[in-house]
Design a protein that fits this description.
The chain is mostly helical. It has one domain. 56% of the residues lie in helices and 7% in strands. It has a two-stranded antiparallel ribbon. 0% of the residues are buried.
């Protein structure tokens, strides 16, 4: 989370998939779990920005 110049708070994440692609010693199960967590965070952020879709 960070606060911009207008004092508005933002939640930001980076695209971890590029980091994982460059890592050779990551357990494939951990890699899948990390990507799932990122996907879930993106869904939460989308719902917060645009509302929950039915």
């Amino acid at each position: 989370m960070y606060k911009d110049n207008n004092k508005q708070i933002w939640l930001a994440i980076f695209d971890i998939s590029s980091l994982l692609q460059g890592s050779k010693n990551i357990d494939p199960v951990v890699k899948i779990q990390v990507l799932k967590i990122q996907e879930d965070l993106l869904k939460i952020m989308h719902s917060g920005a645009y509302g929950i879709e039915n």
